[in-house]
What we know:
Elements: E1 7-16, E2 19-29, E3 34-38, H1 45-52, E4 60-65, E5 68-69, H2 75-80, E6 83-85, H3 98-107, H4 116-130, H5 145-157, E7 163-167, H6 175-188, E8 193-197, H7 201-207, E9 210-215, E10 218-223, H8 225-228, H9 232-239
Parallel strand pairs: 3-8, 3-9, 6-7, 7-8
Antiparallel strand pairs: 1-2, 1-4, 4-5, 9-10
Helix pairs in contact: 3-4, 3-5, 4-5, 6-7
Amino acid sequence: MSVAPILRLRGISKSFGKVEVLRGVDLDVHPGTRHLLIGPNGAGKTTLFNVINGHFPPTAGSIEFDGDDVTRLPVSRRARSGLGRTFQVASLFPHLTVWENLLIAAQAPSLLKKGSRAVGRDADTALEQSGLTRQRYALVGNLAYGQQRLLEIAMALATAPRMLLLDEPMAGLTQEERIAFADRVIELSMLTAILLIEHDLEVALRIAERVTVLNLGTVVYDGEPADVLAAPIVQQIYLG
Length: 240
């Protein structure tokens, strides 16, 4: 018996004035899956993320998360239901320690009212899951950039998400850092479903279990990583 998707998009369109950025996007992401979203610049990837997490309302279409219709719910309600997100540019507090950043995320006052013990426990769990235990008391501004990206994921994990949206988490990393980061993403997928935007296809395709290709706001390919680069439509988009 097939497992129901944790995220289900049907007919998602998004326009800004007369500019149509997304056009009837259908997408299924299943629990525990590493799902890669790729496409050329301007394809609509980040706009789709913003629609999924509630930052932008869709012009048309529906969004189901964990079996519930969340199409019109605000960001805070979606986060409360277990939808976490990171951004292209890390949003951290550089003058605080790693631990203090995690405590802020774990408290998440707009999401849940937790006791101090629960907050500390969630922060501890996220610290361990992200592999930053040794950096617990380090100032965030002193961390290597790759560690800062891991901390952003840890802050998302501190809210105990059922699914993570990772928007170009490897941007700005060295090749060595990218490989280490990819290994961490594989480990994290045992805890949560992951929908990932990434431009480094060599690394991203190594970790993806499913790939969806967007072009001009439309899904043009959805399938196995081993087949994506051989698909004629994908070759046309990336190689002309």
